[in-house]
Amino acid sequence: MRSAIFVLLALSCAFAHLGETVEQHSAIDILLDNPTLLIVGFVIFLFLAYFFNLFPLKKQDRTAFYIVAGLIGLLFLAAIVLSLTKEPVGPKPYHTHADFKVYLDGVPVNFSQAKYMSTNVSRMSDIVHLHDLDGDVIHHHAHNITLADFFSTLNMTFNSTCFVLDNGTSYCNNGEKELRLFVMHDKGQWQQNPQLEKYVFADLDRLLVTYGNPAASVIAEENAVTDKACIQSQTCPERGNATDYSCAGDVCTVG
């Protein structure tokens, strides 16, 4: 029985790892990309063959053997079925959206200008950008891209102490005024976020970067942040289609 427990533990470890990879790969890819599974499977095979052929099995051990062997067959069959029903090999394109506003001394920055837009002719960035003359929604096509990364694609600087526009105008903390970041997650509440330029937004976040008196209310500025990201992410179809069919949902071509 202890042998059966050992085999079950080994299977648990192997298939926990398998569960993380089967979602994006076929069964053959999983085995080729994860030699640990091959090794574990081979060891289990040798163990069972040795156990079955060389040892006289007591009744309780024979029952345990059949249970373990049956589980092995069922698990591998489940893995094959899952791999056949998943989407083709390769990760799904990463594509998230967030509404945002930047207020500097109470004045909103107009990001809807053509110079800030990415198109097939002129791309500010392939991984994080604005397009369709919509300066309210950020399109995000890569993991771990921060707000500082986004603003840098527009020739702006955003860090913990200063926001610098593309024309060189600086808005820096000076004891009387300071930069703050406020974030509202999907179906959440507005909260100040200390990460500032290091923040990596989630899909459907609403973001406010503001510079001014830290004691002043930002409710009006928060209310000015749109909630259109869900249209581009196609999570609110009742509100209409994405404005750019070539760059919506999981499709990442800038049009």
Structural description of this entry:
A hairpin with a 2-residue loop joins β1 and β2 (107-108). 36% of the residues lie in helices and 19% in strands. The longest helix has 27 residues, at 59-85. The chain has two domains: 2-85, no CATH class; 96-247, no CATH class. The protein is α+β, with helices and mostly antiparallel strands.
Descriptive tags:
single chain; 255 residues; alpha+beta; seven-stranded mixed beta sheet; three-stranded antiparallel beta sheet; 36% helix; 19% strand; elongated; disordered C terminus
From the helix content, strand content and strand pairing, which structural class follows? alpha+beta
Low-pLDDT residue spans:
4-11, 14-32, 83-92, 245-255
Global morphology: elongated
Q: How is the main sheet built?
A: 7 strands, mixed
Share of residues in strands: 15-25%
What is the string of helix and strand elements? Answer: HHHHEEEEHEEEEEEHH
Average pLDDT confidence is: 76
- Rounded radius of gyration (Å): 27 Å
N-to-C span: 63 Å
Indicate how many domains the architecture comprises: 2
Extended strand count = 10
H/I helix tally: 7
Helix share of residues?
A: 25-40%
